[in-house]
Amino acid sequence: MIGIYKIENLIDGNLYYGSSKNIQKRWKTHRSQLDSGKHGNVYLQRAWIKYGNDSFIFEIVEECSLDILLEREQYYLDLNPEYNIGMKSSGGDNLSKNPNREEIINKITRSVKERYDKMSQEERNELHSYPMEKNSNWKGGKSISFCETCRARISKGATNRCRKHLEYDRIGEKNSFYGKSHSEEFKSKLSKIMMGTYNGNQNKPIIIDEVEYRSAGEASRLLNIPMVTIRWRVLSNNKKFEKYKYK
């Protein structure tokens, strides 16, 4: 059964709300943890020990579909039930507001350290080598390199020069285009491109809202719409732009 449930203390009326895709199974987990004194919710655990399990009832509050389960749980959490620690329906946060938070964190830290101290050197090497040799994306070393000219830090890649010195390499005689010039034909084409009248698809007659334009460039200037936008609309399958088409 999918829905929202509550655990209520019959002595003082305090509540705990929860949600589950399988409420009956979730209740069994709660009872098992509470009876063994290992429940993650310290407030509920203390009350269970103090008042005894006969002082609590488990009830279904609301059945709902899975797609609104968390939304409905949040509704009940907003009522500020006394036993809930985490007040967000995205999951049980039993640590942030736990009165024993520092003790729990220290216990976890000690546990991790003790486990690490017991590891052999070979096991430690295995652990720390995971993101390297065993990672298919590992490139064999550090991801930071230095410019061979000024020693500035750069990302490791195909070049060993920083941007400043890469640009310097293209100045004057070091530039492959040094001493050369564009042809008049190329200059003319470039001028037309900048003006939005280049003789490619842009120069095809185009119809927009039943009005014909000599080119996308002309339509761009008259309608004040970027030429690339016009071309995109012509090629789009969106019915919103069905009146954009080449002649």
Q: How would you characterize this protein structure?
A:
The structure is a single chain. The chain is 38% helix and 15% strand. It is α+β, with helices and mostly antiparallel strands. It folds into three domains: 3-77, GIY-YIG endonuclease (3-Layer(aba) Sandwich), CATH 3.40.1440; 119-180, no CATH class; 187-246, no CATH class. The strands form three sheets. The chain has a three-stranded antiparallel sheet with strand order 2-1-3. The protein has a three-stranded antiparallel sheet with strand order 7-6-8. A two-stranded antiparallel ribbon has the order 4-5. It starts with a strand and ends with a strand. The model has no long low-confidence stretch (mean pLDDT 79).
Summary?
By secondary structure, this protein is α+β, with helices and mostly antiparallel strands.
List keywords for this structure.
single chain; 247 residues; alpha+beta; GIY-YIG endonuclease; three-stranded antiparallel β-sheet; 38% helix; flat
CATH class descriptor name of the largest domain: Alpha Beta
Ends apart, CA distance between termini: 61 Å
Number of strands: 8
Q: What value does the average pLDDT take?
A: 79
Global structural class: alpha+beta
Query: What is the CATH superfamily classification of the largest domain?
Result: GIY-YIG endonuclease
CATH fold call of the largest domain: GIY-YIG endonuclease
> How many domains comprise the coordinates?
3
What oligomeric state best describes the polypeptide chains here?
A: single chain
